[in-house]
Amino acid sequence: MDRGGRDALLVVRAQLGDRRSLAELVGHWHDPVWRYVRRMLDGNGLADDVSQEVWASALKALPGLNQPERFAPWLFTIARRSVMDQLREKYSQADPPDDDQVDGADVAAVLDRAQLAEGLAGLPAREREVLILFYLQDLALEDCAQVLEIPKGTVKSRLFRARRLLRDHLIEKGYSS
Amino acid sequence: MSEGPGYTPDRIVRGLSLPRRVGYLVAGLGGLAGASIIGLLWATEPTSLPVRTQVAFAGMILVGAAWAGFAAWALVRRPLFAVDRVIAAWLAVTFSTLMTVGLVAVAATRADTTAVLAAGGLGLILIVIAGTILIRARAYRSTLVARRRELEDQGS
Asked: Which of residues 137-156 of B touch A (CB under 8 A)?
C-alpha cells in the first residue's frame, strides 16, 4: 500500500474513533510537520509551539476531512497557515511578484538533499517552503499547489526560481554548481 | 540545527481518550439535568421558600450549570469522532428522557395540567432532537465503516 492509501485507511479508522490508528497517523507525520515548521521558522522552541498548534487544529478538524487520501496536503495546508501567521507577525513586508517563466533546461539541475537542507536557511520564506514541500516532504506538484493555494504552473515557476536562488546561495557559500 | 521535536506524538494524542471524553459528557449532561429539575422544583413551589433553602437551590443550580459549561468547553476543544458522536447521542437521548420524566413528575405533583403538558412538550422536543442526532451519528458511522472496508479491500 502506498503512502496515500496508508494514510487514507488510518484517517478513516481514526475518524471512526480508533485511537491506535490516530496515534499511528500522528506518529508518521509528527516529524515531517515539525521539520517543515522548523525550516520555515527560526528556533526549535518556536517550531515546537507552532507544530503543536498545527496538530491541535488538525486533530480538531480531522472528523470533517472528506478526502482521507488527501491527508498529507491537507495537513501541510494547516501547517502552512500557522507558519504564515507566525511569519506575518514577524515580518510585515510585501510579497514579491510571482511571474517568473519556467526554463525547461535549467529545471534539470540536481540538488543533493543535504545541500538543499543547508542552503534553505538563506532563502526567502516563499521559495524555502516550495522546496521543502516538493523535495523534502516529497509532495506531488498538485499537492504543493493545494497546500500553497496557487495553480500548478505557479508551483513550477516558483520551484524554478527557488532552485536558482538556492544554487546562487550555495555557490556563494563555496559549493560548486 | 539540532533535529527533532521537543515533544512526542503521545503528547499530541493525550487527552483524546474515550473514557475521559465520555466522563466530560456525563458530567455536563448530569449537571444540566440536575440544574433544570432543581430550577423547576424552585419555580413550582407554591409558597416562598426560606432564605437558606433558596441559597442552597441557587448553589446547586450554579454547580450544575458550571459542570455543563465546563464539559461543553472541554469537548468543543477536542475532535468528535464517529464513536464519540454515537455515544454522545445515546447519552443525550437517555438524559433528555430522564429529564422529561423528572419534569413531568414534578409538574404533576405540584402544578396543573397545563404545566404537565408544557413539561411533557418541552421534554418531547428535547427527545426528538436527541433522537435525530443519534440517527445522524449512526449514519455517519456506517458511511465510515463502509469506506474503511473499501480501503482495506484495496490494500489486501
From this structure: 141, 144-145, 147-148, 151-152, 154-155
How distant is the alpha carbon of residue B126 from its chain centre?
11
Q: Which residues of B touch A15 (CB under 8 A)?
A: 81-82, 144
**Assessment of whether the complete model's pTM goes beyond 0.95:** no
Instruction: Count up the domains in chain A and report the number.
Output: 2
Q: Measured between alpha carbons, how far is B89 from B138 in angstroms, rounded to an integer?
A: 9
- Can you give the length of chain B in residues? 156
| Domain-ending residue, one of A60, A90, A120 | A90
SS3 B44: coil
Per-residue pLDDT reduced to its tens digit, B62-82: 999 999 998 888 887 778 889
Chain A CB contacts of B8 below 8 Å: 30
Which chain B residues are closer than 8 Å to A14 by Cβ? 81
Residues of A with CB under 8 A from a CB of B: 1, 5-6, 8-9, 12-17, 19, 22-23, 26-27, 30-31, 34-35, 38, 44-45, 47-48, 51-52, 55, 59-63, 68
Q: Clarify whether residues A125 and A73 are in a common domain.
A: no
Q: Is residue A99 part of a domain?
A: no
A41 against A116, higher pLDDT: A41
CB atoms within 10 A of CB A11: 27
- The domain boundary, picked from A57, A90, A123, lies at A90
Do A124 and A58 fall into the same domain? no
The ipTM (two decimal places) reads 0.70
- A121 CA to chain B: closest CA distance, Å? 10
Give the CA dihedral A103, A105, A108, A109, nearest 10 degrees. -90
Q: Please check whether residues A65 and A29 belong to one and the same domain.
A: yes
Q: Are residues A118 and A162 in the same domain?
A: yes
Return d(Cα A11, Cα B153) in angstroms, integer. Answer: 16
**Residues of the domain holding A165:** 106-172
